[in-house]
Specification:
InterPro entries: GrdX-like (IPR047735). This protein is α+β, with helices and mostly antiparallel strands. 48% of the residues lie in helices and 13% in strands.
Length: 129
């Protein structure tokens, strides 16, 4: 289906990075918003979204971790993905204005959020192969 060597996984979750860095290009960034902005840049550079930028049932201000997979699509139009990532950034910013994501989660809670994010990617990778 997809050439995993061409997939780029953008994340701020070190557990996702450690698990997939040998299988595909993985970019480890500092924050959820950094992930969204990097993915936006890649989508503008003719990549398509393989995973939804707001996957899982957690609101953008509930979890500090996000991992998104993209794939180069060459010259094909990807306006749908451009609009989606822009809307996701807008939604993220709106939620941060309502109630910012806490930066001081207890370690066990932060690890739980990392596990949720990792499980989303773990469920998608086999479907892409």
């Amino acid at each position: 289906m997809w050439n995993m060597e061409k997939v780029t996984l953008v994340t701020n979750n070190d557990r996702v990075y450690e698990k997939y860095r040998e299988d595909m290009e993985v970019l480890l960034l500092d924050s959820y918003r950094d992930v969204l902005l990097k993915v936006r840049d890649l989508v503008y550079d003719r990549h398509i979204l393989l995973t939804h930028p707001q996957a899982s049932s957690l609101k953008p201000n509930q979890t500090p971790y996000r991992s998104i997979m993209v794939y180069p699509k060459g010259e094909e139009d990807n306006m749908k993905d451009i609009m989606l990532i822009e809307k996701c950034i807008e939604t993220y910013d709106q939620w941060q204005e309502i109630a910012a994501t806490p930066h001081n989660y207890q370690k066990s809670v932060a690890e739980d959020f990392k596990t949720i994010d990792l499980s989303v990617i773990e469920n998608i990778v086999p479907r892409l192969m």
